[in-house]
Automatic annotation (TrEMBL):
It comes from the Bacteria. Pfam families: DndB (PF14072). InterPro entries: DGQHR-contain_dom (IPR017601), DNA_S_mod_DndB (IPR017642). This is DNA sulfur modification protein DndB. The gene is dndB.
Amino acid sequence: MMKNNFSYVFPAIRGIQAGREYYISMCPLRLLTKLFVFDNEELMPELRAQRTINKARIPEIARYIVSNPTNYTFSAITASIDGTVAFDSIGSDNLANFRMGTLTVDMNAKFIVNDGQHRRAAIEQALQSTPELGDETIAVVFFLDRGLERCQQMFADLNRYAVKPSSSLGLLYDHRSTAANVARHLGITSKVFRNLIETERSSLSERSRKLFTLSALHFAITEMLSEKELEDFSAATKKCQEFWELIGEQIPEWTFVRESKMTAGEVRQDFIHSHAIVLQALGRVGKFLYQTEQLDLREVLSKLRNIDWSRKNSASWEGRAMIGGRMSKSSQNITLTCNEIKRVLGLSLTLEEQDVENTFLSVHSIPEQSK
């Protein structure tokens, strides 16, 4: 039938999975958006073969492609073919030749993306600004459409065991991020962080010998340095090294862990200063200090010894770094923690910080007024 109709022809490799044939091919990026469609978003979820597109994700993925035209990486897209297909092997004299051939698809067939719809949409957006990428290819795994129920099951199965790597591990392997590069460098060279950084997990167990996570240090660095400052790796690492080693001198528990006088678990259990929110708040304080050149950095930071970092000090930290005795990572809590540190150091608040502080004080003063 297809000989009398127009058709698509893909070089392909045939395989067997769960007793059914499937095919692997390559598709030029410029044709990807023309061939593969997304299921109708206006349909109810039970009548679609996949989830709706999260449009907020698309520009970020598109920027990744455009910003890294020589070393971006994409995994294969999985699609179902709803239509007539035929596979012609290049020979039958051996198994390898039997598996290799051409996949011919009726041009009236419909391609449904089971996995990779965000990649497909991002590629379409990236080609608008960088059309020269159109001749590059992406791997596509084709399955034969067995109806809506089968497509829905494929989506569920493809995403069933997908686990996103931890933030720390992602940063450990991310060599494009300048902040990640600085964080890894500090973890190796700084006497404050050396041997105390957890690089695979973004949370620490009670028995962990590490005091900080790589993701927490990374966030602290992004609070402290602007993107322009991070462009100069040497200057950025020098500034961070100076600042965090001065911080380390004022927090004796960090030194006790390095000297094996306390365990990392004991410090994390009893104090808040090794948690991500406090590191971020300290990074924000550092940014303010370096912008205020007339201040003596060492003299100001020496006042950190006056801070009671104990979890039991609920008068200072409840509602700021902690909510109900548990550490909180919200942006508002980071600001409130930063405000308390700046108060002890004798530093002024920015207008934004003052607004957050006023709101916090107005809420937390109500119980006092009602007594």
